[in-house]
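Subject: Epoxyqueuosine reductase

B.,
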Amino acid sequence: MADLASKVKGWARELGFQDAGISNIDLGQHEQHLKNWLDKHFHGEMDYMTSHGNKRSRPGELVPGTIRVICVRMDYLPGDTQTVRILKSPEKAYISRYSLGRDYHKVIRKRLTQLGKRIEEEVGSFGYRAFVDSAPVLEKALAQQAGLGWIGKNTLLLNNKAGSWFFLGELFTDLPLPVDKPVTAMRCGSCFACKKICPTDAIIGSHQLDARRCISYLTIELKDSIPLEFRKAIGNRVFGCDDCQIICPWNKFAKPTGETDFLPRHKLDSSELADLFLWTEEEFLERTAGSPIRRTGFEGWLRNLAVGLGNAPSTEKVIHALEARLDYPSDMVQEHVRWALEQHQN
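Prediction pasted inline below.
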């Protein structure tokens, strides 16, 4: 099994993963942390966080027979996305860098399935199932136990050689592989740059995130109107937010991705808000095909862009774009457009 574990990690690297580790399935401490978080209603409208009982923190209940989890990570940050420059250009749309290219779920699940088949060639038939942020799995807890990093104060997994600009994936298995040494030292020290930089004060304490205040939640998970108290702070962030990653000192070690699937499409890394706002629904569906951005839907896309345009400079292009959507057949979109226009009248 030790020899097989070594081979598995080598095969994972051949498939494009930057790192792989093996975890047991005891997540008791993390289960309690999740329960406390849910009890405080920090999950907002993400009802799926509560709808699977203990399966999220008990892999053996989610997939009976599971005794180990092979955890992998894959870098996703393109090398030339100029995150800070776009954030400081209020007429531009800032889109979280994980979503600029192809949907990572499909990319990583395919590679994990290939890894499972490669193991099968070696040992014969065995039980396995691949997961990529698409089922009740405590992926960061498992990755920490597999030695891939530690959960930072911003609640993201941090790696001392790669920062945090990477995706995680898991292969649940019934093979009794030797587990890796967990990362127990939290290497954030006294740094709290992530808390200070958060535009909406969503990081309320060390390892404590109130998702209801998080821009990623507000622009992706929330299906209703964005609360007024957060609209100015959202700035030009129209799908997700990367501020707590951009500021993190450990990301000086992050390496550009070599995956062409994650490279920006349709100039989404540098487009102007007004141009995106005038996409038709057909254009939105075409240009976000196979993209995580589809998750917000066209109505949510317009809602988010309207907020960005309300925070943009008062140019003729911005005003005309907003006025063109005043009669859009959605009360939510109309309400955000009116709010945006009001910002340019003050």
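Residues 2-79+100-173 form one domain.

T.
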